[in-house]
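Example 3.2
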Amino acid sequence: MRKALMSLALLLSLPAASWANYLDHEQARPFTDRMVSEHGFERSRVEALLAQAERKQSILDAIARPAERTLEWKDYRRIFIQESRIEQGVEFWREHRATLERAHKEYGVPPQIIVAVIGVETRYGRHKGNYRVLDALATLGFDYPPRSKFFGKQLEEYLLMTREQSLDPLELKGSYAGAMGFGQFIPSSYRSFAVDFDGDGVADIVNNPVDAIGSVANYFARHHWRQGEAVVLAADVAKQHDAEVFEAGLKPKWSVAQLADKGVRSYAKLDGDAMASAIRFIGDEGEEHWLGLHNFYVITRYNHSSMYAMAVYQLSQLVAQRYTQ
């Protein structure tokens, strides 16, 4: 395994191969054929875009070391739980109070969760990403073998999205993974969940905070957010417990009663039939143990990381507390 990882790292560090641009890449022809035959694009249009797409080594470097995989919770938390981000969250909430209240009413997602997601993703729209989305998706779709199928599909979705929304595919900027706007939607999420929340005929989550708020709320609602239910609760772990429960993944697998039998109990009173996942973090004072409930799992559908979901939840609580003061 170590040898394989070293070989992959070497591959990703190599300079671009013999192609001068992505139109010359071996995968360009099949991609272009698919866009023409399945989606009715003009061949010359797709070829012109691929000719202008640029390989970015910094993107390949960044995707190889995401924070969720390289940091412990005590360090990850410091990135997102800061006084400035809390204050900016309160300002964002006040500025968009009516929109957040309408989103809450229509989708059942509380304002603090919407605010926190946008705060974690882009610091309330201040940092939406500096990479051209076309470059990011072409680089990862054609030159990142571990996930080339996924990002190649996102490149396809991106061209469809920009055609549907009458946007210039050469102009949009986003993250190194091709995520866009206040809430950092990848193209497939943009097409599936972005909404025109201000009624102007365009679902613009890149420049329009109203559409972005509605779209984040819609995303959570479509992933079955349960209004009024708890998200995550601190847990106590018996000295003799089943350690395997902490390795079972993000989706709630056991009932609260079953977890109690395995030595993991919530400090709060819960229905024994409620489903939960067992979570263990390394915090500033050592191990932390939590029970992630259904709504916690919904947050992980936005980003498949328990640390991400916890950062969103804790930021949401701090912003809400400050907002009500």
